[in-house]
Amino acid sequence: MKYQNSVYLKLKDYSVSKENFELIYNSELELLETSPKPTLQKLPSYYESEDYISHTDAKESLVDKVYQFVKGIALKNKLKLINSFNLEEKNMLDVGCGTGEFLLTCKNNQWNVVGVEPNKNARDLAIGKLDKNTSVNIFADIDELISQKFDVITMWHVLEHVPNLDEYILKLKQLLKPNGVLIVAVPNYKSFDALHYKQYWAAFDVPRHLWHFSQNSISILFSKVNLKVVKTLPMYFDSFYVSLLSEKYKSGSGNIVKAFFTGLRSNLKAASTKEYSSLIYVLKSSEN
């Protein structure tokens, strides 16, 4: 992957390290890359924080409570989405399954589920949660699944965390059945809330987010492995949650009123531009 050395934005890690980073723009892919990228050895240390909520079930602060409330609604919407494909077989892989809520939701609705979660703490929480229900395989690495095939693969805000992007996308294609469906949800740096908050936009989340996608970049990257975007869906709640965090980074305290109206404005603008704060991409093979 060749990158042109054009600095799009200078920003910092507000969540964990407080270190400074840059976003480098790749005009060919319409993609932003975090620079410098942490080494594979150092990368896990940037997740070692109680603030990194997707690896916990925390419900203490206002942000935590908003996150958990939104997550409950999102779980129902995600299940509704994968059920809408009306597949004959129901073998699902959730990559970056976190603490396992989506796996459990799907398992309780007649899906055969497998998870991948590299973070040990989150993985242990997921295994404990699912073991109460039934035994489910949750792996630390996608390479442990190389001989399996799935009807549906989901990645909910995970692709932006993957170090070797092209290589990982190829692995996803190899794990997908010929008529399977890949669902990828990622933040959208062309959304109104991203343009409004600039370096304070919480969904940049450097350096945990190594890549920052536009709609075109997703289409281009997946076309390399003959996967095409067949549908793009909004994640309406993300603009509100991300705006709440962004206000906290910008002013030191989460201004709920400002965050709400920025999130609302972002969604209203996106009704015409289609540039929502986060987008769900539904991909299928272009070879069929």
Description:
By secondary structure, the chain is of the alpha/beta class. It has a single domain (6-285), classed as Rossmann fold (3-Layer(aba) Sandwich), CATH 3.40.50. The protein has eight helices and eleven strands. It has a seven-stranded mixed beta sheet with strand order 6-5-4-7-8-11-10, with helices on both faces. Keywords: Methyltransferase, Transferase. It holds the Pfam family Methyltransf_23. GO terms for molecular function: methyltransferase activity.
List the defining traits of the structure above:
single chain, 288 residues, alpha/beta, Rossmann fold, 4-stranded antiparallel beta sheet, 34% helix
Number of strands: 11
Assign the CATH class.
Answer: Alpha Beta
Which percent range describes the beta-strand content? 15-25%
Number of domains: 1
> Structural class of the secondary structure composition?
alpha/beta
SSE order? EEEHEHEHEEHEHEHEHHE
Q: Determine the CATH topology.
A: Rossmann fold
**What share of residues is helical?**
25-40%
Shape, principal axes of CA atoms: globular
Pfam families: Methyltransf_23 (PF13489)
GO biological process, one term: methylation
Organism: Lutibacter oricola
InterPro entries: SAM-dependent_MTases_sf (IPR029063)
